[in-house]
Amino acid sequence: MTQPPSMFSVLGLALFAAGTLHAQEFRPEIPHAWNDRDVAKLEVPLVQRDRSPRYLTAEQYYELKVRTIYRSYPVYAPGRAPAGYFESLKAKEPEVLIFDALALHSKEDWIRAGEAIFDDSPFPIRAGPDGYRMPPGLSLPITKDGIIPSERFVIRQKGLVEQSNGTSCAACHTRVLPDGTAVKGGQIDFAVYPVIAGSLRASPEAARETREFDWITSGAPWLMPREEVDKLTNEELARRYDAMIAGVLERQGTSSAFPVRVPSLVGVADIKYFDATGLVRHRSIGDLMRYDIVNTGMDLTAHFGDFQPRSTARPFGVDGTRFSDEQLYALALYLYSLKRRRIQTRLMIAPAAGNRSSSGKGARGVIHLRCTRTTSSLPLRASRSPRTYARPTTLWMFLWAQIPDLRRERDVARGSIRCHRCVAFGIAVRSVIAARRHRWTSGSTRRD
């Protein structure tokens, strides 16, 4: 006969359950994202210090209306959606997502909420009558399930289905691997600007709007006055756009003459400086939140000395909206959750083949660098494409670049290669020189 549990065992189980629940409780410490003191220290000064950006004050920023985030839904490629999928979206009610500790209980809840912001579009457009309306001339990667991961449907009004139209974080930071798997946070693998080049050639009105927006995002009159920029013909601008291959964009602060590669956000938690030139400091989650604010249109309203690209707070077309601190915190947690497997290398000193002393021992060694594990599932593109990896792998890339030199020296003079200490020193010197050359110091854009 089974004996009933004792009072002590029941009490112990209760205490254990209470302790487990307490351990799983997540108490977010949400910083005040846009405060004047931290904003002033966010960016490294430009080469021309008087042209470093001056942003809205904290008081001005928090007067803006908080953006409403709606639940979004996957977009299927034409002919790949389940039967009745698009009609079912029309029947859904709008669902507003809540960002506070009462609605989000665990860290995983906050991360999932941040993913919703990653997928959110500030100004979606109406979808087609039968589903997604593919932009003319653009071919978007599709997963093995038929989903276009860079796009989302959203319901802001019952019966009206809208699509994100390439204006979300996911639009530029989602990659589809050769096996059809989507990697959120990865570099895009399709070209956007050649499509814009086509519209630039086809429509004078589109050309006028494109050139105006180009000046707002890229104008730097202390480097090149507006009059000089306007001398650039539409055909020359279109040729620049045609040259922007997959993964390369003209984002705000750069220019069509100096486009940049879209970075991978996988492993962003390990990066200490943002932007290709290390312009923005990353000291805490608050800095990432502030960087998100800047990149959703705040830099378009900044003052660069006496120049202001746009006078109204319109982040990419939405007038008078901002993210709340809770929304930014959730987005930052989601970005931090995008992890990568680190590259593991093995540096071995082995005797050069055929180089033996009279005693039979190897006289001088040859460095062999073996990659024992690849990075995350993000492959390198063709050699003409910019590199897509983040700063923690910079040393590995420099070392990899030295391997042909080492092999050449080994093949030319078997056994006469420099000692491994000299080779290591040479690699270090070349890495420092390459890193210094990599930084743009000419001040050719608003973001150095």
Account of the 3D structure:
This protein is an alpha+beta fold. Among the domains are: 107 residues, no CATH class; 80 residues, no CATH class. Helices cover 34% and strands 14% of the residues. The chain has 14 helices and 16 strands. The strands form 7 sheets. A 4-stranded antiparallel sheet has the order 3-5-6-4. Strand 11 and strand 12 form a beta hairpin. About 21% of the residues have low confidence.
Keywords:
alpha+beta, two-stranded antiparallel ribbon, 448 residues, 34% helix
Summed up, what is this model?
The protein has 448 residues and is of the alpha+beta class. It has helices at residues 7-24, 36-40, 58-62, 85-90, 107-119, 169-172, 193-202, 204-218, 226-230, 234-242, 285-295, 325-336, 394-412, 420-438; strands at residues 53-54, 65-66, 72-76, 125-126, 147-157, 160-163, 174-176, 182-184, 248-249, 260-261, 273-274, 280-281, 303-304, 321-322, 344-351, 365-373.
